[in-house]
Amino acid sequence: MPESVASLKRENSKLKDQLSVMADEIAKMKEMLLEQSKKPAATNDEVEQSLEFMSKEYDDFERFRVSAGKELDRLGAMLDEIAVEVNRVSRSIDEFQEYSYQYNVKIVGVPQLNQDESSASTSELCDRLFKAIGSAVSIHDIDTAHRVPTRSNDNGGPRPIICRFIRRLSKDDVMNHKRNASKVAPSAVGLPDGASLSAVRIFDHLTPRMQKVLFEAKRFKEQFRYQYCWSKGSLVYLRKDTTSRAIKIKDITDLHRLTNGRDRFEPSTHKIQ
């Protein structure tokens, strides 16, 4: 994904945080004004002659309160308009990412050729793997391929590969043969005999947002005893059992709707890296 889009997502996230802070501050101001208006006009039994002055002071405060309330309402309306625009930009970014990611596959479990494996070497490794699983794609169908770091690499395992295709059809052809990946002989892809490809898996490359949705859907599966949870294309699916239909999960709100009010499902604070 272009760095400019990643930067735009960070800026959009910061803007959302600022909007949230501003909305909280306005709510606090409204609450303070409401509490102040509930207070009775001050009196002083020892200085009764000050009552007229205090009444005028209270009237002035009432005018200020009404004026301030109108101004706060105006600012609140402006914040609502900005929030709508922020959400529109967020959706546009998500759509751009989903379109871009549909040309990618994520491959896990492939041993590295060396510690400093180049993008060209990784692309050639992918090409040999795809041929070995029965796919008709060639090196010319691959735009780029590279290793990506993960938090689980501390155990010394190979880093996952993100492979981007020039055409969507090439990616679909690889996905149609993905089940053969763990059966490939290491020598067929240029790896030493001591290497193993038994743990190789090929997945659709989900956007960060959909990775989060998949993570939460798996938690939902365990909590509500669903039998199946998987991703395909750019969507996540849940299935209660073998006799039920597959349910598309596009965002976290879909998981909330599945509970039907019987139980409460709270998304975790887990962050996808």
Could you explain the architecture of this structure?
This is FP protein C-terminal domain-containing protein. Pfam families: Baculo_FP_2nd. InterPro entries: FP_C. The chain has 6 helices and 7 strands. It is α+β, with helices and mostly antiparallel strands. The protein folds into 3 domains: 48 residues; 102 residues, L1 transposable element, RRM domain (Alpha-Beta Plaits); 57 residues, no CATH class. A 4-stranded antiparallel β-sheet has the order 2-3-1-4. Strand 5 and strand 6 form a beta hairpin. The longest helix is centred in the N-terminal third of the chain and has 51 residues. The two termini are 14 Å apart.
| Count of strand segments | 7
Written as H for each helix and E for each strand, in order along the chain, the element string is HHEHEEHEHEEEH
Assign the structural class, choosing from mainly alpha, mainly beta, alpha/beta, alpha+beta, or little secondary structure: alpha+beta
Q: Helicity, in percent? A: 40-55%
Question: What is the count of DSSP helices, taking H or I runs of 4+ residues?
Answer: 6
Distance between the termini: 14 Å
Inertia-based shape = elongated
Q: Major beta sheet, specifics?
A: 4 strands, antiparallel
Number of domains: 3
CATH topology of the largest domain: Alpha-Beta Plaits
| Poorly predicted sequence stretches spanning 5 or more consecutive residues | none
Sheet with most strands: strand arrangement: 2-3-1-4
Report the portion of residues in β strands. Answer: 5-15%
Protein name: FP protein C-terminal domain-containing protein
Organism: Stylophora pistillata
Keywords: Coiled coil
